[in-house]
Amino acid sequence: MPARRLFLTLLLLMTALPAAAQVVVRGTVADADTGAPLAAATVHVEGTYRGTITNADGVFELQVPDGPSVLVVRYIGYATARIAVEGAERLAVRLEPVAYTLGEVVVTGEDPAVRIMREVIERKQRWRAALTSYRAEAYNRFTLRNDTGIVSITESLTDAFWDRDEGMREVVKARRETANFYVDEALPAAFFVTNLYDDDIEISGHRLIGVTHPDALRHYDFRLVGTRRLDDRTVYDITVTPRNRRKSAFEGQVAVLDSAFALLGVELRPGPSFRFPAPIERFDVTYRQQFSNSGGDFWLPVDFRAEIVAEVKMGPLLAFPAFHVDQVSRFTDYVVNVALPDSLFASDDLVRVDSVALAGENLLEADGAAVPLSAPERVAYAGIDSTMGLETAFAPTGMLARFVRTGSGEGSASASVGGGSGLLSVLDVQPVLWYNRADALHAGLRLGMDAGRYVRLRGGGGFSTGPDGADRWSYRAGVRAETRGAPEVYADASYEARTALRYGTDLYNRLVNSVGVLLGGADYFDYYRAEGIHAEAGVRLDVLDATLAAGLRRERHRPLGRTTSYDLLGQGEPLRPNPRIGPADLHAVSVRLAAGDDFDPFGFFGRRRLVAEVEHSPGGGFGSDFEYTRFSVLADVRVPTFYRRRLIPNALDLRIAAGASSGTLPAQRVGTVDGTLGVYAPFGALKTLGGRPYEGDRWLGVFWEHHFRTVPFERIGLEAAVERDLSLIVFGGHGRTWLDDAESAPAFYAPRVPGAFHHEVGIGLSGLLGFLRVDAAFRLDAPGVGIGVAAARIF
Predict the structure, then answer these.
(1) pLDDT at 749
(2) 204 alpha-carbon distance from chain centroid
(3) Is 0.85 surpassed by the pTM of this model?
(4) Cα 731–Cα 714–Cα 647 angle in degrees, nearest 5
């Protein structure tokens, strides 16, 4: 059994709830007077946290113990029903409505809602302080619709574990989706649920003040608009509006139970400050949620229902159908303040997969496991097949509609943050998100669309919270034209104003760096402001499987200072100052040859690749403040070694990163030899070099690793390691930079330049949990040991 399956099996055994015989009670809940179904009515087993909600048709299914029990059916504004059941039954529950009233209110300077909410906030602080952990079963369903009907559905069922200090972890044990929608990754359930009882609530990059935040009374106007009865108790209906329309806050209504002074339910929408840039013309979000203590001390979410509507329009040129997402989530079987296994929080993996459960009978097919599907959803599951792609459901209209290719292929769907396809993939909308000491938080969008067979348009923008003035904004606009057939020729031009990296690397990106900074690590990069034009033209050379390109860069550079040293843990040291770059003009031409395999950012695959570039800035005659010539080469080579008859033989991987320059190389064009990014140490980095890379006007890095795969374990008879696909890697790294010109090392900044070659060797174990490797590296030229993790070298 692979290690991942063994781990998850043990985890489930350690955390499983006591087993008991279960039967399923089915039923409907409706208004006793009108017969209208009551959606989201709560149904739970009395004295327990086991429960569910009704669907849009008032239908529910609930697994209950095989034996006598009492179901409690509740809906605000109706008399609660308590129904004794014994074994599997089918119920038709009719709830009696009670009057909605607003008694006489005496205003004495503040609305009664303020007093009520003050008590809600104070009591929440007390019971939240006593809540240290819980585990529960979480269910989530997304239904994607256009203006005419359902397009796709996806569901997930997980075991959720929450610890006050460590946060949430989930183990996915079932998933189900329509045939045209598949995301090749674990889909959580609890992570998709927003707890509207929280102090601060994150929504799409916005941090909103919760309605029970300790300072909520300063940020919200609360107003009592009515009362209802829940059995013999009063429920207060209170409207919520932001005091300041520019504050990230909610508006809507909450229901508060009288003597408990606890939220029973909320219906909230982000307030006026919740805005997205063009071409997202509309982005409406409505959240509904209910809470229950089931007779205990803690008010925990029972459900979560969201309605999201997004529209993308570019006037009469282009418009897409409204994009609707309906979300239904449910929590059940809470067990609070219990010890959770340390193994859950031993790694940074927030979501794991129970491979054994997924390989068996789908748990979502069992009665009572999910909130029942509505009639239209049942029809969609039966009728949607793999040929009914999103590109058809969201076909655009407008003058440019016939030029737009919607989606990346039939039946495709994807989502990512900071560089992948966005949810609005019909327009290639890509969210961009990062955090560093110069920008602080940066959020934005990248947009792309095909305007005909040969032309692609792109643009985008973003906002950074750290800098002042115009430096807060980044934007870009560009166009690319290319021919079809052989030879392939392209031309690309763009105008950008952005935060630029003083030195680049293909090992780390801004998002990965952000994680380290937010967790208290050093910021790997340096930054400056760049604004100008980039242009490039190239040709594809089929014989060499290569691209030959010539480029032009005309940019104005300005310095950016350090604006933050914040980290989430509050444990990091103040981040180093950002070096001053410019103001100066950099104008340069370049020639680049790129050949071989596509770039693999995680190192799952060995590759053969060559990128060689010459860049020249001729100085004042070309309008540039710099005069230099820069040469660089990056080569990756894979050589099969032993057991070459195998599908995946032993192999030696070699990487060389080298460069040189003449003239005075500016600080923003230096070369580097990479080190590690925190504990993340991929192939191509010196694994005993942390913090920031070596840099200079000349540089050389040589990296090698031999992948013995499972052969060493086979030879010594360690079959358990072979069955788990564990493999052995021996590696080494050697690097140095030089900086001869004093002008390349400004007095305000001391670059990291070694006085001699850095040498290291190490050993790694790959295939842990199926996708990780752990390395131990030992420096040879000086004392030093590095322990790092990276993606497993799978191929």
Answers:
(1) 65
(2) 10
(3) no
(4) 75
